[in-house]
């Protein structure tokens, strides 16, 4: 949670979760410039981590979704991780559902910032 917030989404229903939530996107230092300047030709550096933290109507953090740029498999460039509100890992790896949706992203499997903080 110490990484900077680089995007916020208003209360909405989207691809992550079952109901209305607000989301904030946080990135590590390797990902920050690439994420903020994302284009169709973008490729974030290895070690980049992007995390979306969902918050309920009261502002309490619920689930989180993380992506880490992976050097070990060029066919699956990102490791996807689903975390519970208490930080427990539910699933992690080259998750097909995540990869399928994120393949439609603007660039490098990412959708990019919707609203700057």
Characterization of the model:
By secondary structure, the protein is mainly beta. The chain has one domain (5-102). 13% of the residues lie in helices and 36% in strands. The chain is built from two helices and six strands; from the N terminus they run ββαββββα. It has helices spanning 29-36, 96-102; strands at 5-12, 21-27, 49-55, 61-69, 78-83, 89-93. A six-stranded antiparallel sheet has the order 1-2-3-4-5-6. The longest helix is centred in the first third of the chain and has 8 residues, at 29-36. It is globular and about 40 Å long.
Protein topology:
Layout: E1 5-12, E2 21-27, H1 29-36, E3 49-55, E4 61-69, E5 78-83, E6 89-93, H2 96-102
Antiparallel strand pairs: 1-2, 2-3, 3-4, 4-5, 5-6
What's the short version?
The protein has helices at residues 29-36, 96-102; strands at 5-12, 21-27, 49-55, 61-69, 78-83, 89-93.
Q: How do the strands of the widest beta sheet line up side by side?
A: 1-2-3-4-5-6
**Roughly what percent helix?**
10-25%
Unreliable runs: none
* Count of strand segments: 6
Quick check: average pLDDT? 85
β-strand amount: 35-45%
Coarse shape:
globular
Structural class designation: mainly beta
Order of helices and strands: EEHEEEEH
Distance between the termini: 15 Å
Counted up, domains total: 1
Number of helices: 2
């Amino acid at each position: 949670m110490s990484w900077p917030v680089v995007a916020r989404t208003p209360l909405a229903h989207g691809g992550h979760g079952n109901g209305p939530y607000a989301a904030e996107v946080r990135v590590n230092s390797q990902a920050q410039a690439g994420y903020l300047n994302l284009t169709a030709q973008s490729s974030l550096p290895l070690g980049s981590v992007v995390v979306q933290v969902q918050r309920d109507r009261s502002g309490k953090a619920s689930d989180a979704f993380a992506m880490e740029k992976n050097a070990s498999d060029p066919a699956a460039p990102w490791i996807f991780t689903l975390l519970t509100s208490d930080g427990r890992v539910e699933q992690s790896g080259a998750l097909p559902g995540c990869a399928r949706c994120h393949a439609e992203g603007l660039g490098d499997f990412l959708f990019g910032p919707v609203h700057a903080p």
